[in-house]
Design goal:
By secondary structure, this protein is an alpha/beta fold. It has helices spanning 2-8, 33-43, 61-74, 89-94, 102-119, 153-159, 177-193, 232-240, 258-273, and strands spanning 12-15, 21-23, 26-28, 48-51, 54-55, 81-84, 121-125, 130-135, 146-149, 165-169, 202-210, 248-254.
């Protein structure tokens, strides 16, 4: 699927970093995100790769920085490091990851991860995480892009100085440009407060798209937001409606199959033409 997506013109491939859900038909979950990202890095040549997004609590922050640098090396500099605090309590508890104080824990983890990536070393001791006299050897490239998947004011304030990308999920803005506008205003305010221009950050959103064969997707929180559907031209036009707000879109596709990727090829072509 990754090779076909690259072949038909997609610019990027993203993996959700989740461990376990309880569904109506029993437990479900994907393969481990970073292991699979390393495999995709080895079999693709052009597309950007990244987690959408990695909860910092799932792994030690210094180890996560080390993993990111490794995948970036395998991909020859194609990684975008997506980070967030996570939300699915079920998987946190099942895999013995603390769920309380998530933003406070994220703040310490982000200081370690961004410090290691930008400077190659940190000496950090916090309430939840520590990295005493820690170095990344070999170092990552210091300009490895960090993407933040959040519109929480506190999280944006924590990350505004170091983030290179921003992302939001379709269900939080009703899959529509109108619903997205207040979230972008919040992002812009955080960046300005940090002394940065809003256009310093690449803005991305994950949009829910359904093609032939789709039957609905279970994606955590219950939502009645409809997917983007229609002909290739109609889907492309819906995506292009975000072009004045957004630099990059990820497609959350129903169903996720080779056939869906083939059906989306003319959509990609039309969007790339603008």
């Amino acid at each position: 699927m990754a090779r076909l997506a690259e072949e038909v013109g997609f610019a990027s491939i993203w993996l959700g970093d989740h461990l376990l859900y309880d569904g109506p038909d029993g437990p479900r979950g994907p393969w481990e995100c970073w292991t699979l990202l390393s495999a995709l890095a080895a079999v693709t040549d052009r597309v950007l790769l990244g987690p959408l997004v990695s909860p910092t609590g799932f792994r030690g922050p210094a180890m996560l920085a080390k993993m990111a640098g490794t995948v970036d090396e395998i991909s020859d500099g194609r990684l975008v490091l997506g980070l967030g605090s996570g939300w699915n309590q079920r998987e946190f508890e099942a895999f013995d990851v603390p769920f309380d104080k998530r933003v406070s824990r994220f703040e310490e983890a982000f200081a370690i991860i961004s410090g290691l990536i930008r400077h190659g070393s940190v000496d950090f001791s916090g309430e939840y995480s520590s990295a005493p006299n820690t170095q990344l050897v070999p170092p990552t490239r210091p300009d490895l892009p960090i993407m933040i998947g959040s519109t929480g004011p506190r999280t944006l304030a924590i990350c505004a100085r170091e983030m290179n990308w921003w992302n939001e999920w379709w269900s939080r803005f009703d899959n529509s440009p109108e619903g997205l506008e207040p979230l972008l205003e919040r992002l812009d305010a955080a960046l300005r407060s940090a002394g940065r221009h809003p256009h310093d950050v690449i803005r991305s959103v994950a949009l829910f798209v359904q093609v032939e064969g789709g039957s609905g997707r279970q994606m955590g929180a219950v939502t009645d937001t409809p997917p983007i559907t229609g002909t290739a031209a109609q889907i492309a036009d819906r995506l292009l409606a975000f072009s004045s707000q957004i630099d990059h879109v990820q497609l959350v596709v129903d169903p996720i199959t080779l056939e869906s990727i083939e059906r989306l090829a003319p959509v990609v072509e039309r969007v790339n033409r603008g």
